[in-house]
C-alpha cells in the first residue's frame, strides 16, 4: 500500500504526515489493519526498539471534583459508585507507589482530582515526591493535578518532579461539548507552563467519545505542535452514572488504527496505551504493543485494569521486553535536547516547524490541512460506520477499583 510506505518513510525521518494521510489511516478497512500495524510497527521499533515502559498510577485524591468533564467518573454530579477519599499522606502514597515499582514500573504518576492544586496542595505533593524518591532514587515521578497557576510547575520541579501530565483529550472544536467548567485553552496553557518550567510534558487524548476522524486528527496534530515527550492514548471507559455511559463506539480494530495514526504523527514520542485498553482492545492488546512503547501497569484511577502479572506475561509473550530503570526512554535527539527534557531548542524535535508552527490557526487552517479529498471523504465514511460496526457494550469489563490507594487492600500491581 503506497500510503503506508510513504508514512513509514516519513516516520523514520520525523516528517509530519499530511492531514489527508492521517485521515486515510483511520479510514483503512479491518481487512488492512494488520498491514497498518506492521507499517507503524516499523516506526515504533526504529525509535524505541522492543522496549515497553511501565507506568504506575497512584490516585492521591479520588472523586469530589468540581469540574464537569463528561467522560470522568469523578466529575461534578457523577453517580458512578467509585472510591471517594481526600489526600493520601506522603507515606501512604509512597507505600502505594512501591507496589508498582516492585512490579517493574519506572515511572509513578501522582494524580489528584480537582480543577487544579492550591499552593498547600503543591506542598503536599512535594512532600509525597520526596517520600517516594527517598525510597526509590531512580524512579521518575509525573504529577497530574489539573490546571496549574503561575509558579506551581517550577515548585513541582524543585521538589523533584520529572514530568507533568495534562491531556488535551479532544479537539478544540468539540471541547466545549465535553467540558464547560474550563476551556481547551486552559489545558494548552498548563502544558506550556510545564514545558517552561523544565518538566517533561505529558499530554494525550481520549478516543471513543463520539468524536469524528477529523476531531481525532485535530487533537493529535495539536499535540504534536505542543511537543510533549509522552502522549497517552485513552479509550473511553463508559462508566454508568456519567453522561457518556452509552458511548460504545470502539472496536479493537478501530483502536489499533487510532494508535497507528498517533505513531505516524508523533513517531519519536513515547506513545502510551492508557485507560480503557482492556475494555476495548481486549484480546488484541498484544498487537498494540507494536504501536505503543508504554503502558500503565495494573489498575487505573477509579477502574480496575488487567493484573500486573498478566501485563508482564503479555509483554514477554509478544516478544517485547520491559524497559529497565537505567534505560533512557526517548531517542537521543530528544533526550539530550538543549534546555532539558522536551526542549524546543533547534528545529529538529517532533513538532518543530518553521513559520507559524504546526497547529497555527492563522488564516483558518491547521498544519497539514488540505482541501477535501477522497481520503477525507473515506475518513468521514469510516467514522460514521465505526459506531455502527462497534461491538456490543461490554459493561462486564468496566469494573470499579476497590483495592490499592485509598483502601486497606493490596493493589493490582
From TrEMBL:
InterPro entries reported in the protein's UniProt record: Aldolase_TIM, BATS_dom, Biotin_synth/BioAB, Elp3/MiaA/NifB-like_rSAM, rSAM, rSAM_sf
UniProt keyword NADP present: no
Superkingdom field: Bacteria
Top EC class of this enzyme: transferase
List of residues binding [2Fe-2S] cluster: 109, 142, 202, 272
GO biological process, one term: biotin biosynthetic process
Coiled coil: none
One GO molecular-function entry: biotin synthase activity
Known pathway: Cofactor biosynthesis; biotin biosynthesis; biotin from 7,8-diaminononanoate: step 2/2
PROSITE patterns the record matches: RADICAL_SAM
Catalytic activity: (4R,5S)-dethiobiotin + (sulfur carrier)-SH + 2 reduced [2Fe-2S]-[ferredoxin] + 2 S-adenosyl-L-methionine = (sulfur carrier)-H + biotin + 2 5'-deoxyadenosine + 2 L-methionine + 2 oxidized [2Fe-2S]-[ferredoxin]
One Pfam family per UniProt: BATS
Cofactor binding note from Swiss-Prot or TrEMBL: Binds 1 [2Fe-2S] cluster. The cluster is coordinated with 3 cysteines and 1 arginine. Binds 1 [4Fe-4S] cluster. The cluster is coordinated with 3 cysteines and an exchangeable S-adenosyl-L-methionine.
EC number in record: 2.8.1.6
Residue ranges, annotated region (Disordered): 377-413
Bias (Low complexity): 377-390
Family: Belongs to the radical SAM superfamily. Biotin synthase family.
PANTHER family: BIOTIN SYNTHASE (PTHR22976), BIOTIN SYNTHASE, MITOCHONDRIAL (PTHR22976:SF2)
Protein name according to UniProt: Biotin synthase
Organism of provenance: Streptomyces sp. R21
Gene from which the chain derives: bioB
Amino acid at each position: 500500500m503506497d500510503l503506508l510506505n510513504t508514512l513509514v518513510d516519513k516516520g523514520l525521518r520525523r516528517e509530519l504526515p499530511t492531514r489527508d494521510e492521517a485521515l486515510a489511516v483511520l479510514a483503512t478497512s479491518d481487512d488492512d489493519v494488520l498491514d497498518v500495524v506492521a507499517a507503524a510497527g516499523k516506526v515504533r521499533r526504529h525509535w524505541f526498539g522492543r522496549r515497553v515502559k511501565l507506568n504506575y498510577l497512584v490516585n492521591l485524591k479520588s472523586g469530589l471534583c468540581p469540574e464537569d468533564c463528561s467522560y470522568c467518573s469523578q466529575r461534578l454530579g457523577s453517580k458512578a459508585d467509585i472510591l471517594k477519599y481526600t489526600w493520601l499522606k506522603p507515606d501512604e502514597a509512597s507505600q502505594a507507589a512501591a507496589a508498582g515499582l516492585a512490579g517493574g514500573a519506572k515511572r509513578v504518576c501522582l494524580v489528584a482530582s480537582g480543577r487544579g492544586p492550591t499552593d498547600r496542595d503543591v506542598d503536599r505533593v512535594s512532600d509525597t515526591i520526596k517520600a517516594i524518591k527517598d525510597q526509590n532514587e531512580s524512579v521518575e515521578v509525573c504529577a497530574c493535578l489539573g490546571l496549574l497557576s503561575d509558579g506551581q510547575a517550577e515548585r513541582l520541579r524543585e521538589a523533584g518532579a520529572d514530568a507533568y501530565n495534562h491531556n488535551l483529550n479532544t479537539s478544540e472544536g468539540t471541547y466545549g461539548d465535553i467540558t464547560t467548567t474550563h476551556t481547551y485553552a486552559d489545558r494548552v496553557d498548563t502544558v506550556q507552563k510545564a514545558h517552561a518550567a523544565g518538566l517533561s510534558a505529558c499530554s494525550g487524548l481520549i478516543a471513543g467519545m463520539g468524536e469524528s476522524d477529523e476531531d481525532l486528527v485535530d487533537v493529535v496534530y495539536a499535540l504534536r505542535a505542543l511537543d510533549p515527550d509522552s502522549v497517552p492514548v485513552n479509550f473511553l471507559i463508559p462508566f454508568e452514572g456519567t453522561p457518556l455511559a452509552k458511548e460504545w463506539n470502539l472496536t479493537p480494530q478501530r483502536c489499533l488504527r487510532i494508535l497507528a495514526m498517533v505513531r505516524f504523527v508523533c513517531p519519536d514520542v513515547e506513545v502510551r496505551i492508557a485507560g480503557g485498553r482492556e475494555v476495548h482492545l481486549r484480546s488484541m492488546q498484544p498487537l498494540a504493543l507494536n504501536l505503543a512503547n508504554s503502558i500503565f501497569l495494573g489498575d487505573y484511577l477509579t477502574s480496575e485494569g488487567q493484573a500486573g502479572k498478566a501485563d508482564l506475561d503479555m509483554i514477554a509473550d509478544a516478544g517485547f521486553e520491559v524497559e529497565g530503570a537505567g534505560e533512557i526512554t526517548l531517542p537521543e535527539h530528544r533526550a539530550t535536547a538543549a534546555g532539558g527534557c522536551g526542549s524546543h531548542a533547534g528545529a529538529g524535535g517532533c513538532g518543530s516547524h518553521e513559520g507559524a508552527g504546526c497547529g497555527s490557526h492563522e488564516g483558518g487552517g491547521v498544519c497539514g490541512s488540505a482541501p477535501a479529498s477522497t481520503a477525507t471523504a473515506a475518513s468521514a465514511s469510516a467514522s460514521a460506520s465505526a459506531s455502527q460496526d462497534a461491538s456490543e457494550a461490554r459493561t462486564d469489563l468496566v469494573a470499579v477499583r476497590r483495592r490499592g490507594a485509598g483502601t486497606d487492600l493490596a493493589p493490582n500491581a
